[in-house]
Amino acid sequence: MNSRNNPLSAREILEGSFLENRARILEVAAFLDRIERAEGAPQAHDDYRYRALLRAVECLLKPSGEVTKDILENLSDPTPEPIECAAGMKGAVGAWKGVKE
Amino acid sequence: MEGGEGVNFIDPHIHMVSRTTDDYRALALAGIGAITEPAFWAGFDRGSAQGFRDYFNQLTVAEPARAARFGIRHYCWICLNPKEAEDLSLARDVLAIMPEFLDRPTALGVGEIGLNKNSVNEVAVLELQINLAARRDELILVHTPHLEDKLKGTRLIMDVLRNEPRIRPERVLIDHAEEHTVGEIRDRGYWVGLTLYPDSKCSPARAVDILERYGTDRVWLNSAADWGISDPLAIIKAASEMRNRRHPEELIRKIFHDNPAAFLSQCPKFITP
Predict the structure, then answer these.
(1) N vs C: which end of chain A shows fewer Cβ within 10 Å?
(2) In the prediction, which pLDDT does A90 show?
(3) Contact at CB, B246 and A7, closer than 8 angstroms
């Protein structure tokens, strides 16, 4: 299957889902605004999760048909080797803490 | 809201030990006729292999009986989940009791095995469980890590699988795939599982996007509903998303019945609903 296997036209997708996606992007904007209004905003700007989110927003500006994949890869641990020990570690955070080259 | 047109849908990954009997009723009313339940993490670490023995009994005795009250066929998968794989001594003890439960009439294979934080010990336990599955020629259901650990973990898991020549890719389903892992999983010949979750994993809309982008062969959708924020009727909502996009009923049947039935029927214990 390729992208033409979507029975809906681009216009139908836009008309059917514009409002819900308008609301979603406003949620992201409000989240960023909330951080700005809060104590410690400059420190939050250096947080790896904050930086990862801004990189994801940048990806949104380059529609390619693979934006979701690009963002997920951007948030992923790029190292190939297993970590030494996972004792006490259960959950995931959603963004890789290391520095990408 | 139902599966539609008399089709018995299959949710091939749902953790009913964490769900209420009311959920069984909802599944039945929605047209879900068969489910399979992988062994997983209970939200806390069990202290001994005896804890796993009790859990495996729950999976192979208690849940099939609970499901049968609503006309639903309940199957399961047996394993030590990757979140409890850091303790190698415990892992060996659990592996020793697994064959007894894999022999039970509703156990379809080894799963959901895989990785969680991609550690050395998790990989070692994964190798042991893949070896067990290969020796017994069991189907394998794979759990891939979440979020930032998924891409790396999926690749490590596929490397371990490739290193075991007795494993045939068509008898392995790699679950919790997303846009950045689907292509590589398919390229290596494994089945793909897409997990539908309200928040942290794939939404029904994204899952249908993936079907449109990567095709509808060797793929199933599941709810993986458990004790967290999750939706036991997620596959019904994904079917609804497909209908809203004007996908034909035969394609919906393929995704929610024929595909899971084809993979699961490789184990002769599975009876297609």
Answers:
(1) C
(2) 85
(3) yes
